[in-house]
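Please, structure for the following, as tokens.
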Amino acid sequence: MRLLVTRPEPDATRTAERLRALGHEPVMAPLLETAFLDPKPPSFRPSAILLTSGNGLRGMLRWPGAADWLDITVLAVGDRTAEAARAAGFTHVLSAEGDGEALATLTIASLDPTAGTLLYPAAVDRAGHWPERLAAAGFTISLAEIYRMDPVASLPDSVVADLHQGRLDGVLLYSPRTAKTFVQRVVALDPQPPADHLSIYTLSPNVASSVTFGRIFTAPEPTDDALLALIPQSMGTSPSGVR
């Protein structure tokens, strides 16, 4: 299948490599670009660090003092982010293997809320209310808005041509922001390309809720493996998670 990969780099390249290994033809078109910000580093030593993305990790490591935090416990939203933290030198890393809610559950089960302040290096635009669960459980969280994701102004000309000529079989969408950007950029095209035939693979119901066309498939759990597993399912009849 010829599949549009919309997630930001460096994740887009990794996903494209996995798709090629599965026999598909990836088309690269990251719809969000990472812009790292420079918030003031915290004046305290965190009791633990919460990571919901590799960008949060990369942004945090821009602080000179972060090199002294490698022995601090890191709780990561998923295995990919956990692997990145280990590669950066952190020695005690746990993976929630899920989404923000799973990260909150792991934090409550693993940490003492009286041990100190948690550091959460995050994007300016965030989804979910899981930090409220931690606050209700007695945790103190210091939020550092350390990067933002800027949407691209338009789809690449080559992708527009693919859409008009029906050369794409499907699209992979990993975040609500990416999904909204993709829909907005397609709807803005004049003339409108055919899109109802597209298989739209979404990481979660929240991502799927932003899509208004195509055959929508939603991963049963918010992981890369679960999303890619939707592709062969979509080639059958009445796959689970389609609407």
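Residues 104 and 133 are 7 Å apart (CA to CA). The radius of gyration is 19 Å.
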